[in-house]
Write a structure and sequence with these properties.
This protein has one domain. It has ten helices and no strands. The chain has helices at residues 25-53, 60-67, 70-92, 99-103, 110-133, 141-152, 156-184, 189-203, 210-230, 233-254. Helix 7 (156-184) runs antiparallel to helix 10. The protein is globular and about 80 Å long. The relative contact order is 0.14.
Amino acid sequence: MDAINPELPPAAIEPPARPPRVWKFWGTALWGLVIFAAMFLGQLAVIIYYVIKQGGPLSATGITHVVADGVTIALSVMAGLPMVLLALWVAIRPTRISFADYLGLRWTSWRNVVVSVIALVVVIGGWDMVSRAAGRNVLPGFMGDVLKSAQAEGALWLLVLAFAVAAPIWEELFARGWLYRGWSESRLGPYGAILLSALVWTMMHLQYDWYFLCEVLSIGLLFGYLRFRTGSVWLTIVLHGLNNLAATIQTWWLTG
């Protein structure tokens, strides 16, 4: 009789909560374009600001002149980080999965860290040996010019911060975090996701020639495999940062 008593109405039946949902192949790809566009706009805004500040024309010539400056490059790389974080947050929120869980932001064992560092050293060392044997320069040419420009302006520390901290964070969150997570749970599976995310990451480095692009691809495959085996994107962020820091120090040493 309580059910028809106006003083004791029946308890409301709440609909079941929607289960968490991971974006699959096309959702990951389309949102990936949005995330990349956000990063690009953040970097472009810094470049346009410096073009206007220096009184140059908003043309390909004016932008090329500004991009050769080490400080501009450092700030544009750093500007990409908050834009990627914002876009990732927007893309992940509808999945009802936490930001950290979706992107694999968990730590791993120190044993995995040591083994991964050794693997990275072997890969990089192998490419350097082939470069020297073939009489090639072990460093991309533009890196030396950018570093010298930043050093001349007393902003070498800013360039190191951009290359060894900001870039590794947003690149790994995008490639091994976002792309790998969605594609690995599609028909591609983990190994297809490792390959495709590494290819996308390689295409983000078209400032290099074909040889260095092959090296970038091999590093991307290694990072993807480590992401698969350990489930940790923090690991690939650390490895990426160490690699970029070592490359910056090597460039500074060899270019004097």
